[in-house]
Amino acid sequence: MRRKGILIVISGFSGAGKGTLIKRLTAEYDGYALSVSATTRQPRPGEEDGREYFFLQKEQFEQKIKENGLIEYACYCDNYYGTPRDYVESRLAEGRDVILEIEIQGARKIKEQYSDALLLFVMPPSAAELRHRLVGRGTESGEVIEKRMKRAAGEAEGIEEYEYIVVNDDLETCVRQLHEIITAAHNTPQRNREFIENIRTELEGEK
Amino acid sequence: MRRKGILIVISGFSGAGKGTLIKRLTAEYDGYALSVSATTRQPRPGEEDGREYFFLQKEQFEQKIKENGLIEYACYCDNYYGTPRDYVESRLAEGRDVILEIEIQGARKIKEQYSDALLLFVMPPSAAELRHRLVGRGTESGEVIEKRMKRAAGEAEGIEEYEYIVVNDDLETCVRQLHEIITAAHNTPQRNREFIENIRTELEGEK
3-state SS of B124-161? Predict the structure, then answer.
């Protein structure tokens, strides 16, 4: 079977460890590409254009919106953030699985346009563990932690829209699980139409 | 997450190697149980009641049909074959993944009753390879081989009703793939309702 790239959307509670998971997944296994977002916010020290983000001017970003050059976009704190279509599609065409870390609103927009996209939701083993991790970071104020826990309650409402959940208890196990789920997803009939049609045509000749 | 057993239906072309695959899967990995069918045909030498089949009298079998004691059944060559419901359900209750090798008509009946059942379809890498294997067995006449190839063409029409296809090219790879697909299937939101509800309740308390 010729393997086509899958667009993979990863969502999950803040504090569930999505970032670390994705970093490990792409480092340990071949065939993945990370989507690079476009943004109008200023680069921070050490950030490089085309690596952390594509840094655009507001006018450039709005031009991209007009041209349908973004799969999805949103505005936070007066800055645009979005997913450039050409970058994602060229990686998929290479046969790579493209990973997008995004929230549920973005995930929905992606599923509308790419029905074959794979939607994954990362969860902590429990709400208590989520709080424990947020506190353990030591970088968040009590107020921010409360806000994140409340947001998690809202995010939890959309879990059924995802195809798989992954529980991040042990990091190693979770990375392997993530990879296995994605590998399995390559084996749906919908993602192997060409292979199935070929074998059908061959079998028709046998009739 | 507490792991519940999944009812796994394995179909595929005759000659695709389903039997060998299933034998290897259940031998190499824990947590599986093979469904044992009931039949009214005579036991063959070496066959044991409750191992290869549950051997029943015609009246006993028809009584089971009446009592809704069979998940599905069919009649071939004047003999009944069917899947006893209690055997399957008690294995599932133990948390085991129960494997059922069955054709598409049976697979449909199972999906109607067990919407969480996982339907897998085993394929050869090509029609030419399928013919090659059937010929290679040396036990089938030319006529039987032609019949099986024709049947495969019919069976190929239903592939989209299955959730995953597995290509049996290399046996070892295929057994591992099968196991990974089943492992991944345990991670759908539908199969983890209790875990998701628990975390929601916990998070509600945070609001």
Answer: CCCHHHHHHHHHHHCCCCHHHHHHHHHHHHHHHHHHHH
